[in-house]
């Protein structure tokens, strides 16, 4: 099992985060977060994620994001977003910044499906 982890960590270093992947993550994030919480909740989440991204803390960023996504665990788009995130984690510092801002912009673009916000 340990050998598999080392093998996988070598593979992720050679992967680059493509613009297509970033767009897909942003679009999925917008779609999923239109079903999560109020506008106020999303604003607080964005504020927290911005501070975490500024500190370049991948673990806390993904923990916070996955905690928010957990309420939508049965949603197909939420599952697809989690898969996309799983495929890139962990990533280089530069790619993390790009991914973090794509996620944050996706959340900021979300409009509530409930129509109230």
In the predicted model, the low-confidence regions spanning at least 5 consecutive residues are 1-12
Class by helix and strand content? mainly alpha
Envelope shape: globular
Question: How many helices?
Answer: 6
How much of the sequence lies in strands comes to under 5%
Mean pLDDT: 84
Provide the domain count: 1
Count of DSSP strands? 0
Helix content: over 70%
Along the chain, the helix and strand elements come as HHHHHH
User: How big is the Rg?
Assistant: 15 Å
Largest sheet: none
Distance between the termini: 47 Å
Considering the chains and any ligands shown, give keywords for the structure.
single chain; 117 residues; mainly alpha; 6 helices; 74% helix
Topology at a glance:
Elements (H helix, E strand, L loop, with lengths): L1 H13 L4 H15 L5 H16 L3 H12 L6 H13 L4 H17 L8
Helix pairs in contact: 2-5, 2-6, 3-4, 3-6
Provide an overview of this structure:
With 117 residues, the protein is mainly alpha-helical. It has one domain (15-109). It has six helices and no strands. The chain has helices at 2-14, 19-33, 39-54, 58-69, 76-88, 93-109. Helix 3 (39-54) packs antiparallel against helix 4 and helix 3 (39-54) runs antiparallel to helix 6 (93-109). The longest helix is centred in the C-terminal third of the chain and has 17 residues, at 93-109. The protein is globular and about 35 Å long. The chain starts with a helix and ends in an 8-residue tail after the last helix.
């Amino acid at each position: 099992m340990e050998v598999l982890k080392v093998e996988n960590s070598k593979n992720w270093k050679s992967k680059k985060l493509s613009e297509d992947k970033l767009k897909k993550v942003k679009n999925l994030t917008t779609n999923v977060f239109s079903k999560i919480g109020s506008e106020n909740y999303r604003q607080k989440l964005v504020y927290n994620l911005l501070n975490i991204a500024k500190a370049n803390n991948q673990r806390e960023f993904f923990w916070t994001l996955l905690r928010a996504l957990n309420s939508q665990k049965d949603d197909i788009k939420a599952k697809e977003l989690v898969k996309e995130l799983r495929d890139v984690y962990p990533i280089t510092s530069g790619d993390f910044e790009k991914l973090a801002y794509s996620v944050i912009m996706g959340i900021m673009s979300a409009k509530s499906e409930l129509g109230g916000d």
